[in-house]
Amino acid sequence: MEEKKKPSFWAKIRNRYRLVVMNDDTFEEQFSLKLTPLNIFIVVGLVSIIMVTLTVSLVAFTPLREYIPGYGLEVNTRKELINLALKADSLQYELSLRTAAMDNIKNIISGNVTGDTLSHKNNKDNNLIPKNVDIKPSKEDSAFRAQVESQDKYSLAFSESKTGKGSISSFFFFTPVKGMVTASFNSAEEHYGVDIAAKENEPIKAALDGTVLFSGWTSETGYTIQIQHSNNLVSAYKHNSVLMKKAGQYVKAGEAIAVIGNSGEQTSGPHLHFELWYNGTPIDPQEYMVF
């Protein structure tokens, strides 16, 4: 007798079977269904794909994603968390300074102040102090000082005599950002600048050529940058989200220096607070440029 060939895998999964549902008492056939392993595998696969697609769609396009840890954090939320962390760090540093000051005041009131134990009378090395030392600068030193002082390349202060201009009316100001003015200059209300609302992530540009005086964070005005220009003119750009320049860098008019934002305590929405100071006095920027 020749051995029967074993059926292949594809033949096995294509074998037909019949699923019958019968009445247990009368043995009457109630329902029947013809099945094959291949059909069962296809149906289970389709159902699984549909369930996975529905689950991904619910998570990606419905508010259910907010309940997944770490998935619902948007860019604005992360920026807000970073700003809060910076504020907390500043408050902690300020608290430590105040605590140290209070401890010093308590020591002074209670008399726990240690005096200076060094005195010239008790100093054994008084004889080692040199006497009759000539501290006058030499001719070479004087010439070198004059040469350095005459160079204005890195000078942050400009006088009217050096520039040959008596005012800033002849300056051509570059508009820092194009947008809508939401609050104008009002020195009576101590609002020494203009507020300009613009598009999100809009770059802030330097109004004139100059050197960056300050570039950093303050709790009230957030990310702030200040630029020193000629004729004792200073411009300030406040409430930014990102600063692109550091203190000491030289910038050109129209060069991007920051990105508009909503940082700091004295703000209620994304905007730029722009100030101009001439000889230490605030002036209205709208008199020199159109936003």
Structure description:
By secondary structure, the protein is of the alpha+beta class. Among the domains are: 9-61, no CATH class; 180-287, Glucose Permease (Domain IIA) (Distorted Sandwich), CATH 2.70.70.10. It has five helices and twelve strands. The strands form two sheets. Strands 3, 4, 5, 6, 7, 8, 9, 10, 11 and 12 form a ten-stranded antiparallel beta sheet that branches. It has a two-stranded antiparallel ribbon with strand order 1-2. The chain is elongated and about 120 Å long.
In short:
The chain is α+β, with helices and mostly antiparallel strands.
Which descriptors would you attach to this protein?
5 helices, Glucose Permease (Domain IIA), alpha+beta, elongated, 291 residues, 10-stranded antiparallel β-sheet
Summarize the topology:
Layout: H1 9-13, E1 17-22, E2 29-35, H2 37-61, H3 75-110, H4 139-149, H5 160-163, E3 180-183, E4 194-197, E5 203-205, E6 210-218, E7 222-229, E8 233-243, E9 250-251, E10 256-260, E11 272-278, E12 281-283
